[in-house]
Structure formats: C-alpha cells, structure tokens
Amino acid sequence: MVVTHSGPLTAEQRERAVLAACPTSSALAGLTAATRLGLRGFEPTEVHVVLPAGAKRPSADAVVHWSTMLGREDVPDHRLPRTTSLERSVIDAASWAATKQAARMLVIAAFQQRLTNVRRMRDALSRRGPCRHRAVIVQSILDAAGGIQSLPERDFEAIRILAGLPRPSRQTRTEGRHRRYYLDVWWEEFRLAVEIHGIPHLAVEQWSDDLHRTNELVIDGRRVLVFSSFAIRHQRDLVIDQLRRASGR
Hints:
Largest sheet: 4 strands, mixed
Number of helices: 10
C-alpha cells in the first residue's frame, strides 16, 4: 500500500495499511469491522484484525487475533477491504470485551440500531464456536425476541420461590381502554403485575407505547413492577427484595 501524502493517516488508510501487512486471507474484525459496517457508539481506538490460525504476527500496529473460521459466510468475498460480517464482528467484539456488561451492550446495540436479526446472529454464533462471554451473548440474542418469552421458565420461577410468592399467571389477557394487553406475570391476590423487558430499544414509538401500556395498567388499579431480563438473571437479590415489598411478603 502506498500513501501519497505526508500528513497523518485517516482511519480508513490506517486500517488498509494494517490489513496490507497481514496475510492475504486476514480481515478487519471486531469493533473495527463493526464500525465500518454501521455500528455506532463503539468506535475503536485501535485497529482489530483477525488472521488465519498459525499465521505470523504482522509488524503493523494493531490488535491481532487468530481464527480457524474465516470462510465466506463470516468474511464475504465481495467486501473490500476484507472485513468480517456484521454479526461475526459484533460477536467477536463482545467476546473480546473486558466485562459481561460491555459484551451485552455491544450485542444489544446491534439490534437497537437495526443492523441484524436473531436468525443471523444465531447462525454466526453457531459457527464461532467456544468464546469468552458466550453465555451473555446467547442471553442477549434471546432477549432480542423480547419479554419473558426470552427467559427460561426456571429463571423467574427460582426468583418467585426465593421470594416466597405463590405461582402467578403468565401472559394473562386484560382489556385496556382502547386495546387488549397481555401481562407477563400477574398475581390477582396482590393486584400485582410484573413486566420483563428483554431488550431496551431506540424506537421512540415503541418506547412510548410501552409507557402508555404501563400507565393503563396502573390507571386500572394494578400495581406494576418492571424488570430487565438482565436483572432477572444477574441481580436476583434486587428483584426478590422489590417483589417481597410490593406483595407485602
């Protein structure tokens, strides 16, 4: 690669220079690739590149990873410079993230920004094989399906038992002022509903509809607790405490 000016390299020039120093089957990867493909809010400060397993580390200034899975499904031939697919890039970036929370944020952002869907993310993860933070990545993909249906039955059931609450009704239908609603969890004896949000979203209309729905439930005399599926899985003590206080147990 030849640069025809004496000034600092642009981000794209730097990425191309790094890739030119790598074996021909290498690709831009992780946050570098995901940002190129439209992911916003996670711009990398370093260039991430993935090399075929066993390849020699290049002399270029980059964060280098190796992989045995660099086929056409994960590194499309038509894209230049060579870049891992959006789904593979997000999964790699999540697996290389420092914390579980950071990994979850990356996966959720891809759905929030409407860059992918559940099927494509599942397919990419199935090819990725074992990786760091895999359980959180799987959970976050499932959360994209939304609500309590994305949670294994045992997750909320374990919390219910620990909170000392009776078995609730699930997906209970109720009539609002203008439309029909379904309650994720409902205890008639406590007049208490629990709503579980699988994935936060950036769609303003949907967010507004969710708020109006909760308001309608409260106006109708119900009390409503709202939890994220992340809280159900990873913040049980908080959820149990609020359930007990809301139910008077």
